[in-house]
Amino acid sequence: MEFKPHLFKSWFTLEEVQRLLKNNYHFDYSYKEIIKILSNYPHIVEILFYAEYHGETNQLILGKKEQPFGKLKIKKNPIFPAEDLIKIYDKLCENQETVYQSEHSELIVKSRENRPYIDRFKGFFFVPEFSLDESILNFTDDNSLILPETGFYDPYDFFKFKRKDRFFPLKFRPDFLFMEFNAPFGQGVLELADLYLHADDFSYIANLFEYENKQRAANKTKENEEQAEQSDTLQPPKTEENLQTHKKQTKNSKSSKILKLEGSNSVKKFYLESILKSCEETARIYPNEGCYSVIKAVLAAFSQKYNLSQAYNGDFYDVEYYAQKLRKMGVKFPNNRGIKGGEITAVIELAK
C-alpha cells in the first residue's frame, strides 16, 4: 500500500490543499476556487480562521494580520431565549473573572462597573456564511476574504472552566462573541493564506474535487454537444411558426436525454423518494441529530435491507445531494458542527 502521510492529518492550510490536489490528483485550483467549492459542503469540510484579541490595548489580530479599529465584544445574542440571555449576562457581570478553556482556545471575561468585557481571547472561529457567499467572494481580490462589519462569531471549540461553576454546563460554547469593524476607517479582511481547513481525512476533500471535476466535464461535454447540434443544423428564417416547431423539437430532444439518464441511474432514482421520506421520519424521531448523520444512517439501512452498494458511483447519490433535497423540502436539522452524534436506528419509509 502506498504511504500517504497527509491521510493522517485533519487540519490543513490552503497551500497544503492546493499542493496535494495538484501533486496527487492533477487538479489545479486557485485559493479562491478551493474556498468556493468547499463552502458548498460545510458539514464535510470546516473553514476556520485563528484570532487573537487583547482587551487592554483593543488589539484584534485575524490570522497573521492586525485589524485596525477592530474589536471583539460581549453582546446579547438575539437568537437565544431572553430568559437564558439575562441569566448568562448577569452571571458574567457578577464574576470578577471567568476563564474559558478548550483544546485550541482560551477566553478570559472580566467585569468592570457591572459590565462584562473580554480581557483576552485566542482561538478559532468559523468563517461566517456571509463571507463565503459567491457575490461577496466576487467582490474581493484573489487573496483575501471580507468579513461582516458587525456580527456574532461562532467559536470552533466547546469550552470548559478552570473552576467549578454550577450555573454553566460542563461544556459551553460562548455564542455572545460579537466582532465589529469601524468602517470605513477599518474593514475586516482575512488573508486566504491564513485560513484553516478541518476534515476527518484529506480523502474527504479529494472526493469532493473529483466529484466537482466530473460535474464540470459532464457540463462541458453537454455544452459542446449542444453547440455542435446547433452548428450542424441549418436555421430557417425566424417566423412564429418556425419558433413553435423549434421549441417542440428542443423539448422532445431534452425528453430523450432525460430518459437516457433515467436508464443509467434507475436504481438511484427508484429509491430517491423513499430515502427522502425515511430521512424525514428519522429526523423527526431523532431531533438532535445532524443532517449528515441521519442521511448516512438511512443509506446504511437501505444498503443492508435491499443489498445496495454504497461505494462511489454505486446505487446512491452523493450525501450532499440528499441534503440539498431535504433542505428544499423544509426539513430542519440542528447545527451540530463539532458535536459527535449518537447511534441512530433509521426508519425505512417506502414511497407509494
> What is the string of helix and strand elements?
EHHEEEEHEEEHHEEEEEEHHHHH
Mean pLDDT across the residues is: 80
3D shape: globular
Give the helix/strand class: alpha+beta
Describe what this molecule looks like in 3D:
The chain is an alpha+beta fold. Helix content is 41%, strand content 18%. It contains 10 helices and 14 strands. It has helices at 14-25, 31-38, 82-94, 129-132, 134-139, 202-232, 240-264, 266-285, 291-306, 319-329; strands spanning 11-13, 46-54, 59-62, 65-66, 71-74, 97-101, 106-112, 115-126, 144-146, 150-152, 160-161, 177-180, 189-191, 196-198. Strands 1, 2, 3, 4, 6, 7, 8, 11 and 14 form a 9-stranded antiparallel beta sheet that branches. A 3-stranded antiparallel beta sheet has the order 5-12-10, with no helix packed on it. A hairpin with a 2-residue loop joins strand 7 and strand 8. Helix 9 (291-306) crosses helix 10 (319-329). The longest helix is centred in the middle third of the chain and has 31 residues, at 202-232. The protein is globular. The protein starts with 10 loop residues before the first strand and ends in a 23-residue tail after the last helix. Residues 1-5, 238-243 and 245-264 have low confidence and may be disordered.
